[in-house]
Amino acid sequence: MNRSAQLGNRVSTALGRRLGSELLRLRDLSGKTQQQAAEAINATNSKVVKMERGWVPMRDPDIRVLCEFYGVTDRKSVVRLLELAKLDRERRKAKGWWQHAPNAGALAEYIAMEDAASRVRTLQLALVPGLFQTAEYARSLAVSDGMWEDPDEIERIVEVRMRRQERLDGDRPLQVYAVVWEAALRQLVGGSPVMRAQLEHLLDVAKLPNVRLQVLPFHAGGHPCVGGTFNIISFAESEAVDVVHVDTFASTVWVENESDSAEYSQRFDRTARLSLAQHDAVKLIDSIRQEM
Of 148, 146, 227, 248, which is closest to residue 181 (Cα–Cα)? Predict the structure, then answer.
């Protein structure tokens, strides 16, 4: 993700950029320039640029003036933008534990988004989803990665992973729908004892009412998500579109427009239809556990 998209409070970036893109669309339709928009709200051109890119919180008076300047006469459209701006401002004020978590690194923005989410759909091909990992499994991954050598640093990484899992219960439990490839269940991360305990934990997690777990078996063959793993993050607010998180070795990509995020949702759904239903997935996980 480029640095420009990271400006401002990380929790609010998706909502901020959505609002900014709406204002940009309205300005383009009206034929107005950024300089003209800046003059309308008695601001600099750079402020309009930041607003349209979602880098700064937006004031209600500025939104009202710009809507009038762009010729927006539909009151519901203006109210919708004002509500979106309010949500964005509230998110920017939010203070989360991840802001002070040591070595959260590239995961920091994802953790913030996950904390604000109401539902996450995750497609994993090589690993057990982070929200379902045991401490031993997460520790083994950190050690085998080779990027961290300090044991204390590794333990802090594991602590961050375990802290994320608090969203699985409590006052507002996160709804998690996970599709995991069979290979991730058979890969001996940390050796047989660690993996056996991880599979036992998966069986416990699958009992949670807010968790739906499916397994994509080897015999399913090719599937729509063969190209890689991703997470689809959904929010309770009606104005917030789904956001897709795609993490690779080289970069982190956020997909935030409706058409592209819908494509990921469709691929997830098609792959889920090829996967074992939760009842059968649990049976497979248990049989693999017994083999270990």
Answer: 227
Total domains in the fold of the chain: 2
**Is the same domain home to 198 and 60?**
no
CA 185 to chain centre: 23
pLDDT at 112: 75
How many alpha carbons fall within 13 Å on the CB side of residue 157? Answer: 22
Residue 215 structure tokens: 């397994």
32 lies in the same domain as 114: no
Average pLDDT over residues 198-206: 98
Which tokens sit at 166?
A: 């608090």
| φ and ψ of 9, to 5 deg | -65, 130
pTM reported for the whole predicted model = 0.75
Mean pLDDT of 155-165: 88
Rounded Cα distance, 197 and 175, in Å = 23
